[in-house]
Amino acid sequence: MAGWALACAGLGPAGAQALPAAPDAGPDLRRWADSPAWRQLLHWDETAGRSRIRSPGFFASPQGDQDPLAELQATLQLLDGPVPPGAGAPAACRWPARRLWLMEQGLLPSASSPLPAGCAALAAWARWDELTGVSLILVSGYLGNPASTFGHALLRLDTRSGARVGGRTDVSVNFGALIPPGEGALPYVVKGLSGGYVATFSDKPFYANDLVYAHTEFRDMWVYRLALDEGQRARLVLHLWELLGQAYDYYFLTQNCGWRLAEVVAWATGRPVADAPTAWYAPVELFHALHREDRPEAPTLAEPPQYKPSADRVLQAHFDRLAPEAQAAARRLMAAGPQALGDALGPALHPLPLAQQQALLETLLAWAEVRLAAQSPDVQSESRQLKDRLLLARLRLPARAQPPLEMTPLPSPALGHAPTLIGLGLGRSRGAAGWHAQGELAAFSYERAGRHGLPQGELVAGHLRWRSRDRQDAGGPVRVEAADLFQVLKLGRYSALDGPLSRLSWHLRAGVDRRTVPVASGRAPAPLRLALEGGLGAASAPWSGLDIWLMGQARWREGETPRVGPWLGATWRQGGVGAWADWQHLRGGDGTVWRGQRLGLVADAAPGQTWRVSLDREGASPASLQVGVQFFR
């Protein structure tokens, strides 16, 4: 769990400076203190009646976290007067965004530049003279870390020199919780949900984030360059400087990286991209908002996203352009391992034409880079030696202009469906003569055939299903049929380097549900029981857009004999349309059999809006049947 900790950039003073008594505020000053823009600058929580920022050093007044008027008075005194003894950096360098806003409102004299004079640290951090823009970056989900399961958002300050190296040397800004080293999974989840962690904005060169996300965790990224004018860009960058290292309470479900960045963008642009989170705010929702703002009657807020593939997708593209005999050689050499590869490299290269020798070595170098990143920070010496050996072999061959890799960009998850699912349908229970109404709600639902930020997978959390009673049932008119804490499907990413089957695929589900029993007149429904499911297997991708898997599946329900059996499934996705089908046959030790067949179709109506139609048949003979229509929002 130590890898979950984020560095904290501790910038700014340790606390607010003592100030002389402020003059009484006139009506105009109170009006500015009550304005939405000033309260946004203070990150004001209207419900709590105080700022969400907990660091005393963020405020100019000792009462600034609870009194916007006192904070405005104190800020004006510090910005419009001499620097008090012992105050450290000039107030304009500590609060440059406040200074800029107050100048725009006519409360401070205007200046020739939004960058305050004498703020060398700020100018160097923002690389002000080279700054060309600001980009928001959406990172795909990652099941190896609970905080990253739902995706991630970060920001990058784009510069002219950084553009020459893909932005890797530019400053990137993250928002995340500060996790103690060695924190266990259970405390991590509990504290993350309940506000038990402090979170901050922190900065580091983008190549450090790229190493983690693209090269270690194999996550894809989509870069949204914001279409900002100079004033908006200055407001955003200067406010980020004010926020670095300031402490917030952290709530994993709502006040997370996506929401905090949305607040900053909303303040800088005046655009409604930071709708208040209710029960849930996934990072992708910030990017849904960027797409919603792309409308004819308003200026474009973001340019079309640029796809940045993960390192293993780049490796796959290298492999795909090899001739068949070179692909076979690549598989043999990779299987041989670092020690044996040196002796096998010459004989493998010798029969190939020069162009294929060059391409093979370039593919092997990409593979070596993936190995090095996967072992970081404790890189094995044999992995370094492997890369050096391959690089030396490549340098012995003539140089060439490396042809561009042919890769089909993956569409941004923000063009797919929103994470909240609402559904209505009809069902017929085993032995029932008629149909009943049913519904479902999932707080977060990345469907297996949907277009979202968890490639080759499915994640559903907080999924509740209910139904009306059958005419023969006893009990009330509506009952809960099932409630899932989570359901996860992870298909091992298929790669031609691995052969016809993918790496390990798996499935987990935990929740409560009812045993399916034939309807009998006057019979009460079966009680809700704890239910657990899990499976392991393999997957394959016969052609683009289609995934097929086979798993051994086990299901346990409280008070019943466990059942085991096969699970065969398939998903297909092309453009805005997807489909899935699966079949399960589980047998218990007592001879009971449970069968399940499911079919579904999803279609995107607009960015963030998707409809789904599903047909489920499950249970023993006679089976229950459900048909429904679902909407994501």
Automatic annotation (TrEMBL):
Highest taxon in the source lineage: Bacteria
Ranges where the DUF7843 domain occurs: 33-105
InterPro entries attached to this UniProt entry: DUF7843, Lnb_N
Pfam families, per the entry: DUF7843 (PF25225), Lnb_N (PF13387)
Ranges for domain Lnb N-terminal periplasmic: 124-271
This protein's name: DUF4105 domain-containing protein
